Amino acid sequence: MAIETDEDRLAFFDTDDFAFTAVITLADTSVVTAVGNYDSAALTRGLKQSNQFSFNQGQEVSGNKPCFRTRTSDVPGVRNGKAMLVITDDSVSPPVVIGTFSAFDVQHDGTGMTEIRLMAA
Amino acid sequence: MHPRKALRQAFQTRLLGAVTVGPTTTYATSSEDRVFSTMTPPIEIESTLANEGPVTMVYVRHQERREEDYPKSREDGAVKNRMEVSIEVLAVGANVDDALDDQAELIEALLENWEIPGFPAADVLLIDAQIDVSNAQDRIVGGLFMTYHVNLWTPYRTDTSSTFLATDVSVRTLGTFQGQIVDDDADEWPAVP
Questions:
Q1: Best exposed site among A112, A118, B41, B80 by fewest CB in 10 Å?
Q2: A54 in reach of chain B (CB within 8 A)
């Protein structure tokens, strides 16, 4: 028995407060809209290499790791590399477009929530 | 100038390949003027790699001299320096593998028949090349890592008036023979031939 419903989950995504809206264009050009949490944490990492000749190579690169977390029922047709998302902050007037992304990695957590890792389009 | 520094700067100049005609400067690779002979702060994906283009870095990470690399007399000659030069290229984009392989082709061509200024007898040998791609951030980031071995020769104890020799002579030597130092410590100092 589910301990929560999609309606319950919607309480986490209040666009007047902290949630964002994603307009998602699918591979078949159909468009769906989802509400969810957008985050873009800073991430600095290096492509470290080593071999028998060189003990360490790899300059660090700083960037971000954006993701969009929403209800699984809102994104049924979103597949890895097969959807474009335009994410908007509706809590301000007029709404601000955060960016356009491709869905790089769609991760369903099995409890009714989905996290989509985003790549800059 | 230390040979490592000279080598880094020579590689940087070679990989820049800047040619200025009138108001226009062209460069040898798609890294254009973003060729550095040093570590830099972390490179920003958006402002640098996405907006400007690839970045190339040159390091001399290792220098080795073996005993046989010194002149047999240990005086008045040239010493062989075994340098390890790392070249890194970073780029972003959907076709980052192609971009990096194209860069590798250019770099290999630039260095294959290159006579290093100031070191005309140096060997420049590509030893290893690796490509890695990361998808951990908001763009696909690719890295090309090339390792060159450079064997070059620098003067060794050719100046008998140097501070090093003058100090040494005053402390350790018994005299000279045919211009060679005769010392009193055979364990630490090679015998005079």
A1: B41
A2: yes
